[in-house]
């Protein structure tokens, strides 16, 4: 099965919501305004053991709407230093719950409440953890299929995951929002002088997460993390060696989602804002020159980094665009089996 491919769809009807004008304010809104306190429906915590022998367990929250859930289950994957309680995750969860879908808010290894059940820490290519997470969900939860949405780094993880997955029955499709599909370029942009405040904010949170007493770092790792002065150096002295990569360049190269997009066999929507201050648009524009057959690329003039707070609705534009995409996918009964 293939989907109609849009090489590069600009949506001029998107207008920034007052007062969140421009890429920076669109980005900052998620930090300045808390997410919804009530999602609606019932929430159940689950723990999923990982298969690598580490003893780590991922935590996730299954949100079920008051009405009988409609297909598919929507699995949300947070970005760097995010978690199941991040504003954009909770906003998306409420959005899909209101449309009758069951939602799974996953905490990656070492993130959010998974920090208390894991000694490891997620990275841009941790696809095995995502495979385990989905396999560990109850069969009933997955009965109507699954649609996965990855935000920022979570989107790059999703690209790597889908490229390995093939065309599987039950995987309805996926979407990425502002994913760093070329991690090396994203790191350089984040370290640019105009992004100094963003860079320091993220680096402090990265250090906070991995230096948690439960993380199990040895003395050498602790020292290396503490002295790292950039996300690039952090990934070079900690992320890459801890996860079996030969330095930061090898890590960025092997986990770059852009290199794997053509292997995706299920419908995938990729959304990005041209004024995202963190993630460069150039990799998306290059991908659009030879678009993958199952991928719809949507580049929007504004929206910031996982912002997309539009003037015409209190619901984020990316949630509404993903809703249109889900609705356009044929039912599971018409999907090609294994």
Question: How would you characterize the overall build of this protein?
Answer:
Residues 1-12 and 331-338 have low confidence and may be disordered. The N and C termini lie close together (12 Å). The protein has helices spanning 22-32, 87-98, 127-135, 153-165, 183-190, 196-210, 219-227, 231-242, 248-254, 282-289, 317-328; strands at 42-49, 57-64, 70-77, 101-106, 146-151, 171-177, 268-273, 295-300. Helix 3 crosses helix 4 and helix 8 crosses helix 9 (248-254). Strands 1-2-4-3-5-6-7-8 form an eight-stranded mixed beta sheet. The protein has eleven helices and eight strands. The relative contact order is 0.19. The chain has two domains: 22-181 and 256-331, Alpha/Beta hydrolase fold, catalytic domain (Rossmann fold, 3-Layer(aba) Sandwich); 183-253, no CATH class. Helix 4 links the parallel strand 5 (146-151) and strand 6 (171-177). The radius of gyration is 19 Å and the shape is globular. It is 34% helix and 16% strand. The protein has 338 residues and is α/β, with parallel strands linked by helices.
Tally the helices: what do you get?
Answer: 11
Which class do the helix and strand fractions yield?
alpha/beta
CATH architecture label of the largest domain = 3-Layer(aba) Sandwich
Strand order of the largest sheet: 1-2-4-3-5-6-7-8
In short:
The chain has 338 residues and is α/β, with parallel strands linked by helices.
């Amino acid at each position: 099965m293939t989907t109609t491919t849009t090489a590069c769809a600009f949506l001029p009807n998107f207008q920034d919501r007052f007062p969140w004008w421009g890429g920076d304010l669109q980005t900052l809104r998620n930090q300045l305004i808390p997410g919804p306190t009530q999602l609606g429906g019932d929430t159940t915590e689950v723990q999923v053991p990982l298969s690598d022998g580490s003893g780590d367990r991922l935590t996730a929250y299954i949100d079920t709407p008051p009405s009988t859930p409609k297909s598919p289950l929507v699995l949300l994957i947070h970005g760097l230093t995010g978690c199941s309680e991040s504003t954009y995750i909770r906003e998306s969860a409420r959005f899909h719950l209101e449309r009758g879908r069951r939602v799974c808010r996953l905490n990656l290894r070492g993130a959010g409440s998974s920090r208390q059940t894991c000694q490891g820490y997620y990275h841009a290519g941790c696809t095995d953890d995502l495979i385990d997470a989905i396999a560990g969900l109850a069969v009933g939860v997955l009965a109507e299929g699954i649609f996965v949405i990855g935000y920022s780094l979570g989107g790059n993880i999703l690209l790597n995951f889908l490229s390995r997955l093939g065309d599987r029955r039950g995987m309805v499709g996926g979407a990425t929002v502002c994913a760093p599909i070329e991690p090396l370029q994203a790191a350089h942009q984040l370290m640019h002088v105009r992004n100094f405040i963003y860079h320091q904010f993220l680096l402090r949170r990265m250090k906070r997460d991995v230096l948690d007493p439960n993380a199990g770092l040895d003395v050498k790792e602790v020292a290396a993390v503490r002295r790292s002065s950039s996300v690039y150096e952090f990934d070079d002295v900690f992320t890459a060696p801890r996860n079996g990569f030969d330095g930061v360049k090898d890590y960025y190269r092997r986990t770059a989602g852009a290199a794997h997009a053509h292997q995706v066999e299920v419908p995938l929507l990729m959304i990005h804002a041209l004024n995202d201050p963190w993630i460069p648009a150039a990799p998306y524009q290059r991908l659009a020159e030879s678009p993958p057959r199952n991928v719809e690329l949507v580049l929007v003039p504004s929206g910031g980094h996982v912002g997309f707070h539009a003037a015409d609705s209190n619901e984020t534009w990316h949630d509404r665009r993903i809703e249109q995409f889900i609705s356009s996918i044929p039912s599971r009964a018409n999907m090609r089996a294994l």
